[in-house]
Input
Amino acid sequence: MTRAFARGLLVVLLFLLAGCGAGTTASLPSTASAPTNAPAAPVASEAAAKPVKLVKVVTTMSILADMIKNVGGEHVAVENIIPLGAGPEDYQPTPQDAQKIAGADIVFFNGHGLEAWLDDLFKSAATPGQPQIAVSEALQAVDVGSTDFREGNPHFWMSAANGATYVEQIRDGLILVDPANKAVYTTNADAYIKQLLALNAELKQQAERIPQAQRKLVTNHDAFPYFAQEYGFVIVGNILGSPESAPSAGDLAALVQNIKAQKVKAIFSESQFSPKLSKTIADEAGVQIVADLYTDTLGDASSGGATYIDMLRFDMQTIVDALQ
Output
């Protein structure tokens, strides 16, 4: 009886051990041992780590979004309103845009009347005390006689020097809502401004490759006055006085005659506009059309104009190639 009982007890123990984990070396745990399937204790650094709070930034234009990423780096989360390929003057806001405004710690927009539709979004969705920064505020606008731009032409960013002023406004706005990272924003802004001023000098050198008499621009709309002012071009004419209105037949005929009289070599249009009207005028005037410039929007990753710096560099190179 004793041997049979011992054999039976051994069988039961082996069965229980096999159930706990076949293929492992098992030993009977003491009462002080922790269970074999207990989770590992957290590493001290992991337990102490806290999620980083990002500054929620909303911008109106892809150009501003790119600038803010350069200044804010990993401390900001940027949401942009106007999609790539669309312009700000005739943009129609959506309910999703109101949600973006409502969730923002700070909003950056161009100003000088460019985003007239933004006022309604601020009234309906902005939170009390939310900073709303017009980055062109410190700049003096030129008057191009447009009824659409009562505060003067708002396309300041087409000069890299003006872009550097935008960066100063962005830096100060981020410091306002996140003073703990003032040193980071200041350092990043200084480095980015240095890049933009170097770009500005580079673009001036490129423009000088064209004889002064040939630095004449006819463009699809009036986005180039600061570009022309900064880099030594003359605006002969714009096809559209407003993105929302078509020119008269008389206006177009006068423009064609002016192009011929001043021996303009090319008509320039932008990626967000249909080139059809520009091509018609170019054919009438007997000049070439260049229809892939970037002004109010950046391009996609394969465009050559996916960042603000790349955009200005691409535009200048394209213009120089066409006018030489």
